[in-house]
Amino acid sequence: MKYNLGWLFISISFCLFTACKGQATFGLNYLPVAKTIPMPGVKGRIDHMDVNLKDQIVYIAALGNNTLEVVSLPEGKVLHSIKGLDEPQGVCYIPQTKEIFVANGGTGDCYFYSAGNYKKIATVHLSSNADDVRYDSTAQKIYVAYGSGGIAIIDAKSHDEVGNIKLPSHPEGFQIDKRNGFIYVNLPKSGVIGVVATSKLKLINELNKNYRQGNFPMALDSVENKLFIGYRHPATLVVMDTKSGKRVAVLELTNDTDDLFYDEKNNRVYASCGGGYVNIFKLQDAGHYKQIAAVPTRKGARTSLLIPELKVFLVCEPSVISHEADLIVYRITK
């Protein structure tokens, strides 16, 4: 039997598109699209983001493009692109000094830039693979996951490394629980969740041993002592009680998740997944979580940012053959 290869390609493409975009779509009312901001010239994988709340400017680590994209939400456009980076992964904005901090996975170098003129101010060198970043605005300390097993602590004012936490393998997503004095950190190589005592800067416990693999993103509800972990193998969202270390709930998740956020006001969990969806979960009653939405995105759009103060959720969609990279701004509704 002879086939028209052009029509065959279109048919297959249509089936794949509808399979990932249409079959499981629901709950669009929770995240309507407010605007789409093009990021022309940005190629490859996109990693994490942070925001300057006062000016509503978002900083995006364009890992595959070796740039940091500076995007204005009110203006809906890219303001600037900081070039010459080496696989930028983590980023944070420091409001006290009006500086941008970028962690480079390729070299391990961490750069401070002026948010005003984008000039480099300082460099902190870590051994390798500087990755996810968290900023403690009260203490003005930056926490950077890096290397074969460590979290570096950098003073945002002096630009000096002031502490280091040793870990058994490379850390991915982590959260600082200031209320209880712990840092919870995903160690996907061994499939465990490390518990670090901030008073000792030392790993004191490991949770979820021998459970699953590929635990990358993490979110925290420190008030209710709940930890939300996104697993890739298999794709699941696990809700844990941080006091007991027990699993409260296990729910199916779209594959290839890389960012996870807890929305305290609406009691929701948002997971952006490279498989082509944002999954939203909500606590129904004690210990019972339910998925309330699967919002379709471009394949590979696995990094996101929740900005509760602005009531928006951001998703970066990477460039494909027919589309340039975009920053999608979703409005959070009740």
List the helices and strands and how they pair.
Layout: H1 5-21, E1 33-39, E2 49-52, E3 57-62, E4 67-72, E5 77-82, E6 88-94, E7 99-104, E8 109-114, E9 120-125, E10 133-136, E11 141-146, E12 150-155, E13 161-166, E14 174-177, E15 182-187, E16 192-197, E17 202-207, E18 213-221, E19 226-233, E20 235-241, E21 247-252, E22 257-263, E23 268-273, E24 277-285, E25 288-296, E26 303-307, E27 312-317, E28 325-331
Antiparallel strand pairs: 1-28, 2-3, 3-4, 4-5, 6-7, 7-8, 8-9, 10-11, 11-12, 12-13, 14-15, 15-16, 16-17, 18-19, 19-20, 20-21, 22-23, 23-24, 24-25, 26-27, 27-28
What sort of overall outline do the alpha carbons produce when their principal axes are compared?
A: globular
Under the CATH scheme, the architecture of the largest domain is 7 Propeller
Order of helices and strands: HEEEEEEEEEEEEEEEEEEEEEEEEEEEE
CATH homologous superfamily label of the largest domain: YVTN repeat-like/Quinoprotein amine dehydrogenase
Q: Residue-averaged pLDDT, rounded?
A: 92
Q: How do the strands of the widest beta sheet line up side by side?
A: 1-28-27-26
Helix and strand content put the structural class at: mainly beta
CA distance, first residue to last residue: 54 Å
Question: Can you offer a commentary on this structure?
Answer:
With 334 residues, the chain is mostly beta strands. Helices cover 5% and strands 53% of the residues. It has two domains: 27-42 and 210-334, Methylamine Dehydrogenase, Chain H, CATH 2.130.10; 44-166, YVTN repeat-like/Quinoprotein amine dehydrogenase (Methylamine Dehydrogenase, Chain H, 7 Propeller). The protein has one helix at 5-21, and strands at 33-39, 49-52, 57-62, 67-72, 77-82, 88-94, 99-104, 109-114, 120-125, 133-136, 141-146, 150-155, 161-166, 174-177, 182-187, 192-197, 202-207, 213-221, 226-233, 235-241, 247-252, 257-263, 268-273, 277-285, 288-296, 303-307, 312-317, 325-331. The chain has a four-stranded antiparallel sheet, with no helix packed on it. The protein has a four-stranded antiparallel sheet with strand order 2-3-4-5, with no helix packed on it.
